[in-house]
Amino acid sequence: MENNQSLHSYIKEELLERIKSGLYQAGQQLPTEYELCEDFDVSRTTVRAALNQLTLEGYLIRQQGKGTFVADQKVRQTLSDTPNTYTEQLAVQGKRGHVAAVDLTVVPANAAIVAKLNVKLNDPIQRIERIRRANDEPTQYEISYIPWHIAPGITKKQAEHSLYTTLRETFAISVAKTTESLEITLADERISAHLDCELGMPCFYIETVAENKDGEPIEYSRSYFRGDKTNFVIERHYAAGDAL
């Protein structure tokens, strides 16, 4: 568990991974609060706080007298692509962009990573934590996962620039497609610490899977954006005569 992550935030993330990896399916009833207390060896108050936040974020449904159930999957919306890096996008807006690498570690692939990156359980994965700033204010906290066999030994210097540029120029791996899922979440202790925002502040949450030209997943990332500091533009192009 991360040092600045509270128990209920840790449990929330663990339950969320079980939902996203398919261990808990949509419509399935979760174990009881008592069973979760036994599972995580924590108090009922701690478990309840984690369940309440997942309910607020739309992952769970609490039914009085029946229990807690996994909610149906949310509607997915594709975002527009852009060839520009983060600093280039900010420069156009007259802002200074900066990327700071918080942590670089190698971790074994868990069930959630296996589902996203098509690797084997416990395969080595490079985990890269970064914070993006605009005019010295943190706006985005990102965790990227890249299989070790794809790009072994990415350095701190490389991580503080465009990862996609590093993959292309250093490892001869080009990103051909990204699939992004956008949701709204609330800042917990970990997110508020990294983004310097209040607990419970609404944030954009984006999960991204990047693929090469052969359709092989080469990167999976989870990004949190301050809701009061960020917005998104979606641009679509239609052929003549196309209709919604």
From TrEMBL:
InterPro entries: Bact_HTH_transcr_reg, Chorismate_lyase_/UTRA_dom_sf, Tscrpt_reg_HTH_GntR, UTRA, WH-like_DNA-bd_sf, WH_DNA-bd_sf. Residues 5-73 form the HTH gntR-type domain. Keywords: DNA-binding, Transcription, Transcription regulation. The keyword Signal does not apply. Coiled coil: none annotated. It comes from the Bacteria. The keyword Nucleotide-binding does not apply. Pfam families: GntR, UTRA. Gene3D superfamilies: Chorismate lyase-like, Winged helix-like DNA-binding domain superfamily/Winged helix DNA-binding domain. This is GntR family transcriptional regulator. It comes from Exiguobacterium antarcticum.
